[in-house]
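Weekly sync, protein design subgroup
Attendees: M.S., D.O., the rotation student, P.L. (late)

Item 1: inverse folding check
M.S. brought a backbone from last month's batch and wanted to see whether the design step gives back something sensible before we order anything. D.O. pointed out we never logged the input encoding, so this time it goes straight into the notes. Structure tokens as presented (95 positions):
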């Protein structure tokens, strides 16, 4: 299992546009056969920051996600164009 979080910061005025891009990205990502969990969050009290918690069955499932047309459209072509910075944290399950 591959688990990680992605934290991204945006200009506050991009909040609504980021939300519009996250909805179809999350919906399509959750339908991928190798996706276990894909949950985007806005940070309470900080409308300019999102955290996405993602889990995939294996490395191939993650690669499939990153090669998908919805990732290209909504992440690379949308959210990534608006973000000011990005931080990825790889996670290891305790049990």
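Designed sequence read out in the meeting:
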């Amino acid at each position: 299992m591959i688990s990680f979080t992605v934290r991204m910061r945006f200009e506050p005025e991009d909040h609504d546009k980021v939300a519009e891009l996250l909805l179809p990205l999350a919906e399509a990502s959750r339908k991928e056969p190798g996706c276990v969990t894909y949950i985007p969050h806005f940070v309470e009290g900080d409308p300019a920051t999102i955290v996405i918690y993602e889990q995939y069955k294996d490395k191939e499932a993650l690669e499939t996600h990153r090669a998908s047309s919805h990732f290209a459209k909504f992440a690379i072509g949308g959210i990534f164009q608006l973000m000011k910075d990005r931080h990825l944290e790889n996670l290891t399950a305790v049990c």
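Discussion: The chain has one domain: 2-91. The chain has a mean pLDDT of 97.
Action: P.L. to compare against the previous round before Friday.
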